[in-house]
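Letters spell out the chain; backbone shape is given numerically. Take this protein:
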Amino acid sequence: MGSMRLRKVGLTWALAGAALLASALLPAATALAAFHADDTLASTSDESGTPSFTTEGSVTDFQTSRTIPYWSSSFTDPTNQVEYPFTMVGSDPRLGGSTTVATEIIPLTFNFVAGDQDVSVLNVPARNYVAVAVTASMDAGASADATIASPIFTPSTFSISGDAAVQYGDAVMRAQFGQVGTGYHVVLDQPAVLDAASIDVPESKGVAVNNPLGVLVGRIDEKWFRAHLHKLLGSLHIDSTTLPIFLTKNVFVYRDGDYLACCGLGGHGAGSTTGNGGGSINGNGNQAVQTYVWAAYITPNSFPRFPAPYAGLSDIHSLSHEIAEWMTNPFGINTAQSYLSPLAPPTAPVCSALLESGDPVTGLWFPMAGNPDPAARGVWHPEDVVFLNWFARDGQDAALAPADGRYTYMGHLTTMLGGPFLGFGILPHSC
């Protein structure tokens, strides 16, 4: 793993204004391909499949003060009269208050070797593209600085919700509960950044390839990566009240030894600090419960169709997805009545009961100005978010509803895309 030392990042960033670019939100010509809300993965080099995210661990008994600050409540779904408990980061919006969560960023460096990997499955004959494994070191160190400069950590103006001088996650939570303009906040503290952890990837566990657009993409075996991630998480001895964020630089995960069973872009999890990020905990209020996030900082043009309205897979898109889901489901236990994904075609329906606010809108994004990377069109690509009231089918406390009743953060900007996106303007269909 390499040795690491903790260094604080002492930077003052100018406020990054948000500009809603109408040209970036044109009606979609085609819908997203089907995706599975659990662990389905997709390809980056060819034109098939979709990206995915995972919930890596959960805790069934998290009642302890030795974890991130949280509040709990429940809603009764009016369509089946079942009560569903839920827990979220911060304080109860109905009581107001501001919460700040300590954070640490752990950049990961993956060292790939070009050996005997057979990467022919990544060939794209229609483009006369032949994939070739390359030797490369993919370091997320610079991505940590970019992440801190982004709206994830830098207070910004969010024109969609009319919020100013707030972070992305804070803006989402304030809009979700009708708290824009109030003193309610859920804030990520400016992070400490660890030196990058260097990880050698055996040729049997991963490969780096330049895709048809010349973008370097790293693929690593999902199980192998999780084992390393959990080992690293255990060795760092991070305080359980802190959120560790593991960053990769355009390195994604694949499954079952198949490079095309790719690509997992991120995940979030929770568990005992001695239990490798998962499992039931019963510590009578004394057991430490660690929550964590891992996400890929994405290079533009790593995925097909970028930057279509439904393909904003660039820069902070993955991390914004995971931060939103960590805030709304930090312990991986929140569920709702099962629902059909509006973006899945009728011929391949996708059913889920997870209250994972980013999964139903993976890829859907809104632009925010200030990204210095010209390949990213000068904008950040945070993800849209599905609100609690959509999952609850409007069964949540009225005081926990957005001011205008929208079901996603983008609201009418989501539904104006037409087609399956109209499904986010109405309550979900049950499976």
